[in-house]
Hints:
This protein is an alpha/beta fold. It has one domain: Thiamin diphosphate (ThDP)-binding fold, Pyr/PP domains (Rossmann fold), CATH 3.40.50. Helix content is 29%, strand content 15%. It contains ten helices and eight strands. It has helices at residues 35-48, 84-94, 106-112, 114-123, 168-175, 188-200, 222-226, 242-249, 269-272, 291-298; strands at 56-60, 75-78, 99-105, 128-133, 179-184, 205-210, 229-231, 256-263. The chain has an eight-stranded mixed beta sheet, with helices on both faces. Helix 8 (242-249) links the parallel strand 7 and strand 8. The radius of gyration is 20 Å and the shape is globular. It starts with 34 loop residues before the first helix and ends with a helix. Residues 1-8 have low confidence and may be disordered.
Amino acid sequence: MAETTALPKPAAHGTPLPLIGKTSTKPTWCPGCGDFGVVAAVEMAVKRLQIPSHNVVIVSGIGCSSNLPHFLSSYGFHGIHGRALPVAEGIRWANHGLTVIGTGGDGDGFGIGAGHFIHAMRRNVDLTYVTMDNQIYGLTTGQASPTSTLGVKTKSTPNGVIENPIDPISLALASGATYVARGFSGDVKQLADLVANGIQHRGFAFVDVFSPCVTYNKINTFDFFRQRVYKLESAGHDPSDIVAAWQRSLEWGDKIPIGLFYKVDKPTYEDLEEVLTAGPLALQPAGLHGKEKLLDEFV
């Protein structure tokens, strides 16, 4: 189901264009949910970059986190479970003059949406994908998700999870993402920096966010992360070194890194696709180009 928020009309000539802000729709997240920090960080990032609200599209799938497009005054598309990225790619290619931000959760992005996640990264599509990773299925009341840690007891795993968790950062590095970062919703300032830099990056920018579920995950809490996270920039990490990024991505225990793991400049899908080099599809003339030549091939 598509959801489009009410947008202010573009400003008259000579006056500033309206920037993104909160809508009148109030979040229905549980009090204390980490996703409040994420929506604040996304708003801060887009405002800092001075991108007019009518040039921003936020796309989501299904889950608590995927309600995020409802709460910001940009264009929004609330899609189906696991399909945020193909919708975001389609929007980006139809009009790559738009700033496209995908949002979702660990279940939506790394479960049913894992295939789309990998292929969007290997294509290096120029968009930003922000995941709210709470290591649980919150919307459906507390089942194990693809990032739930081994042994965790949930409604769907009463004897403990027996599957190894997906590591989103390692997966992103292996799949070709050209901007790979991790934030914590308990540090909105750093998270806003990571999102803003991801939006400015030309290529697929992935920002995984530790966003605790205060209702159904009593293990990976705000206190759990506050006691463990450290900032990569403070540890002297070089984000141009993919081997170092890979090693950091495997750290999980008493110390867990957040910040920018990896960044590299490479041609984007939009740079290499011949049809898109003529400009956004939405602004190209309609109709079949070179139809005479095409028809001659079949006559």
